[in-house]
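Input for the complex:
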Amino acid sequence: MNYHIQVFAGLAELMGKPMITVSADQETMTVSELKDLLSKYFPEAAAQLQGAFVARNQAYAAPEDLVSIHDEIAIIPPVSGG
Amino acid sequence: MQYHIQLFAGMAEQFGDVITMELSQETVTIADIRTRLNELYPEIASQLSGSFFTHHKKLASPDELVLPSDAIALHQSAPGMETVVSKCGLYAITYDLIDADEVTSKVHDPSHGASLTFNGTTREFTQGQRTVLLEYEAYVPMAMNTMKQIGDEIADRWPSTRTAITHRLGTVRIGETSVVIAVSAAHRDACYEASRHAIERLKQIVPIWKKEVWEDGSEWKGHQLGGWNPHNTP
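Predicted:
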């Protein structure tokens, strides 16, 4: 099962690409599990991933919320607009 | 059933103007289209960050249902992008210069006695370091959602106010305007409070990032000290 995850700004530079694909056995997982999985694939970005939030279908999700392979998933590092 | 997705600019040059894909399920959403695109065209998928779908020329949410005959388009957030405007017209994201008067005109109301236009401009010196220019990037569909959320919050908290926000992306030179927030209200007290609320919330929840570019380097800005939480209530 492939999860496609958009990343932005400094995190995209750190991870080397703006769209990450990770695979897992299950079709859903919690936001926390997703962050842990990404940290395993990208240990150099682990600290920044911990400080970032996950958006599911274009809205901020809580750590215990579930994301599925059918969702639009994005990692939102601390924002700095304005 | 076949679905057709229109591409623009750089993606159209690389992959053609239209992508046709087969989907067998009875009802199809924008999220299904994105998932299928990821599987069928990984080389497009790798460029999908910062991209967004429109459905009949309006920004589409992931759960929106689409039909095979519908006009579905995939846009990329990149210089040359057409300005994205919310359905209500009050919120916009653009790579062009912002016309502050135009944003202010959106909140004009004959029953309102006050309007404030906040211009966020790029600063040359931050803590002694000279910035040459700034680069802004956004997760466009979510940035549009959260700007609308701020306008809705303001309307709840200060009834009969109206809010409009336009944010710029791409390269912004020193002294240029990166964001304009216009608020109008029946009375000035509410107007000042609401205007302040809008910019503070924008900096807290709208997924837009800026990179300061100096003569000898650059840095993405954001909460350097940690503890950022977009779920905190204002």
